[in-house]
What we know:
The complex is a heterodimer.
Chain A: E1 2-5, E2 20-26, H1 38-42, E3 80-83, E4 89-96, E5 106-114, E6 119-128, E7 133-134, E8 140-145, E9 148-154, E10 160-170, H2 174-180, E11 184-191
Antiparallel strand pairs in A: 1-2, 2-11, 3-4, 4-5, 5-9, 6-7, 6-10, 8-9, 10-11
Chain B: H1 3-23, H2 33-40, H3 60-70, H4 83-86, H5 133-142, H6 151-160, H7 162-172, H8 196-202, H9 206-227, H10 236-242, H11 255-265, E1 284-285, H12 300-309, E2 339-340, H13 362-371, H14 392-403
Antiparallel strand pairs in B: 1-2
Amino acid sequence: MVLETVAKSRGFHGIGAAMVVGMLLSLVGCDPSAEPTSTELAVPVSPSPSPRSTNPSTNPSTNPSANPSLANYSEPLWAAEFESPTGVWRLRYRPIPDPIVRNELFEIDAELVSSDPNIRITAVDARMPEHLHGMTLRPELHDLGDGRYRIEGMLFHMAGFWELFFWVEHGASCIEQKAAEPQRVRFAVVLE
Amino acid sequence: MSQVTFAKLATAAISIALSAAATEPADALEFTDSEIRIIRQHSPLGPPPPDPSNRFAEDPAAARLGQSLFFDARFSANNDVSCATCHIPGLGFANGAQRGTGTGGQLTTRHVPTLLNNAYNRWFFWDGRADSAWSQATQPLENPIEHGADRLQIAHLASHTPEIRAAYERVFGSMPDLSDRTRFPEHAAPTPDVSPRARAWRSMSVADQHAVDRVFTNLTKAISAYEREIVSRDSAFDRFAANIGSHESASAIPESAQRGLRLFVGRGNCRLCHSGPNFSDGEFHDTALPRSGGLRDTGRWGGTRRLLMDPFNSGGTFSDGVRPVLRFVAPRQDSSGAFKTPTLRGVARTGPYMHTGQFKTLREVLNFYSTRENIPRTHGEQGIIRRLDFTESELDDLEAFLESLTGRPLPQELLTAPPSPE
């Protein structure tokens, strides 16, 4: 079973950067090293119609102070967010730096908002479906508490279409959670 | 000057002018904005990235010592192999053969990679089993089929050779006293076997082992400082890229090379792996290369394990600072059979090609990517590499483009042993 939803994304990240174009949600196994199924890969991801910024300094995702309306914005600017179909949890993330620089290490700040404290992010990884390979590194996930996470060791070494995966689990048992809630959120990212 | 002579000279001058005009490209191709954006990702090539693991990397005195060591065949088992034996300056710091020839005429298992732009690498060796140029250099020195030396032999030689010792102490401070042969045997190395060298190493105290390792790694840090100076840049392509979109670019590279560039960044998709100003992503790919004999080479898979076990990696005691990326290295399932993307700068001078050295010419490499003939079915693959069916004319164009990546000649003084290591 594969569910698709429209990204609540700011839509663009600038040239040479990540562009969130959509997200998919799927019911798959808990193992982060598991290969995505062909069904998942067959699901189309529509490119965002949003324009690209050619000047990162005017890109609000890069430089909030450049936009007076965002100058006092106290919360992080998320690159994209997703709400689970049942509304039990909401996941959002932003890369650091934003935009992502091809072939340079970056980090991710993620936030999982839920009234259920047992729901958590258990792994993060990325893959290039057209290339049949993933990242060359193994990122580290740090649980900062209060639903906040920091992921280190991300590296998109090639230009092209990347899928960024977050594994979301409920409690200790992946199997119990499988019946009720989806487990893997997939964000689509394009690097030039 | 007689009128006849003048007429002859004038004719010759006109002839030369016509000849020059004939070789000049007719025009610059019109590149799209998207193509220009991608082309500009490849140029110019800036200075090498810093090496936090080697605080002597930018030290000119270390580089001169390293250059001296690079050409010194005494640092081998039979006084017959130096770094320059395989990394031949006149052959783009490669060796022009399918395999390297080590001490006693032994052949290496893989092709000798060029050292051009070595300092831009994130990983070293075809399988990335080292994460710094200095830790890379420790391995061939002790490899029995390359230099075949050992770290005690190397430390003693450096200690006993006055000019090397003086150069060493100028850069690294005083060298330890290695004269007590009961503490510091003539030959010893921590090889994983029961050889006399291994037994001799185990007989040493940890403190003495540490002192020898410090000398050994300082010497390879000096070699690494020299290698940072071996940079291929300022190619005809760079001159083209600097002026792309203007009339001046037309004269930088022939129209054929411009067509090849368009294929490189476009239909050929070559730029996906050969990315950035050094024309390499520095990472590892399985291109489904036909087997050229021998056992299956696991490439990065095995390289990752060796890197993590290497006491000389950048997280180790002898490193001056850890490379941030090392922390996130782990064996990944899709890395088996993958090898490092080589730089394409200077590539026309560094054949044969691939980690196996199985393609003698650039044309053979291009044909491999164009036809995808004889690729093994069981090999891991990169789905993005597809048969491209280039025409002969397109292959000519790609070859012309790759030729345009040859940089300005390196200064002559970098190509031979210096008069003195100091």
